[in-house]
Amino acid sequence: MEQAEEISLFEAIGGADSVERLSRRFYELMDTLPEARHCRAIHPASLAGSEAKFRDYLTGYLGGPPVYIEKHGHPRLRMRHMPAPIGPEERDEWLLCFRRALEETVPDIRLRAVIMPPIEKLAYHMQNRA
């Protein structure tokens, strides 16, 4: 009996092009949705650097090449985000943008169902104020 080959989420969603679309759409939504204004307010005026780092992080997070680590070292996400005041509003708005971007760029509902729960857990972990 032949064993099924396992592929990463990175490969399953379509690789670098899909992660690029997801990251771009995520930051477009953050930049334009009125209901994401608190989350947007804690980011720099230009989102280009944030988008690039997020794309690199997401690439490795989903099982692709460890681009973020190669460029920036260990993610230490909570430490790196500590200067930004992340409360429930910012967290929930970030999740809204991510969820919507994921729905718009990853058509397979089963893949979204695998990706979303750990992302939600991560967002709660990033919260640093009540």
**Count of helices?**
8
CATH architecture: Orthogonal Bundle
Taking all residues together, what is the mean pLDDT? 96
* Helical coverage, percent range: 55-70%
CATH superfamily membership: Globins
Kindly estimate the percentage of residues that lie in beta strands according to DSSP.
Answer: under 5%
What general form does the structure show? globular
Low-confidence stretches: none
Class from helix and strand fractions: mainly alpha
Number of domains: 1
**Distance separating the two termini:** 54 Å
- What Rg, in angstroms, do the CA atoms define? 15 Å
Query: What is the CATH C level class, in words?
Result: Mainly Alpha
Q: What name is given to the CATH topology?
A: Globin-like
Largest sheet: none
Number of beta strands: 0
Pfam families: Bac_globin
Family: Belongs to the truncated hemoglobin family. Group II subfamily.
Keywords: Heme, Iron, Metal-binding, Transport
Protein name: Globin
Could you give a quick summary of the protein structure above?
With 130 residues, the protein is mainly alpha-helical. It contains eight helices and no strands.
Topology overview:
Elements: H1 9-13, H2 15-32, H3 37-41, H4 48-61, H5 67-72, H6 77-81, H7 88-105, H8 109-126
Helix pairs in contact: 2-4, 2-7, 7-8
What does this structure look like?
The structure is a single chain. The chain is mainly alpha-helical. The protein has a single domain (about 10-125), classed as Orthogonal Bundle (Globin-like), CATH 1.10.490.10. Helix content is about 70%, strand content about 0%. The chain contains eight helices and no strands. The protein has helices spanning about 10-15, 15-30, 35-40, 50-60, 65-70, 75-80, 90-105, 110-125. α2 packs across α7. It is globular and about 55 Å long. It starts with 8 loop residues before the first helix and ends with a helix. The model has no long low-confidence stretch (mean pLDDT about 95).
